[in-house]
User: What shape does this take?
Amino acid sequence: MPTEPKKQPAGKTNPVPPPNPEAASPVAAAIAEIAGQLNVEKETVSAGSGGTYKAFTMDKVYEAVRPLLAAAGVAIFPRPPHVEYVEHARSGGGVQTTARYNGSWMLVHAESGDEVLIGFEASARDTGDKAPIQAGQQALKYALVQLFQLSAGDPEAESPPEDALDSEAVAAQEAEDQRRLENAARSHLYPLMAGEKITEDQQRKDAEATWPLVLEAAGVKEIATEADRDKVIAAATRLYGPDEDEPGEQPKLTGPPAEKEDTDA
Assistant: This one.
């Protein structure tokens, strides 16, 4: 049979034990205080063809958390991450790398030395070497979001669609690829504007002025692929390259020089 709780003598109550200062966690107290003050609003993020969705951006989270951590005397120290790399062939050519970043960070209370470990895993894609950096930023962002219990809202309504994961990184990389292709085409047009009496500044202005005409002649609005780049280079050469029929001009790298006429006959 269950035993009844021991009855206290009349006039006496169970004393509440006093708090133990040695058992307190200054870093946990700081985290709780910051969580009570923190307010980060989600922003509307474009997912390209996937539409838009609500998300905490890295800048907004860092901007809100950093001053509160400093005021509470808490520093963040990154620990060596574990990163896995997977390479994929891109439809437009080249290779894209996915970095899976498993990171952890130590939050340390400066005055007491009290500490707590947090961690998160994220991934990002890039055609260069920035995939682990982007993934690391995402991992820290969501580690802080979970640590300070920021409201995630309705996950079904506010999460990105499956085909829009890492959309920010993908969009940035596509813009960088397009910039490189356009620069390659422009670098071909620039020397075609050269002349004996043309300054470099005028040469640059002429190239900029003729750029829309070259795009129109190539039949493209922007250079998004290597095929577009090749079309623009061909159009620039066709419009502004040396004329093989012009007196005094010889086509370059197309064969041996023309034979000299026999004037003794």
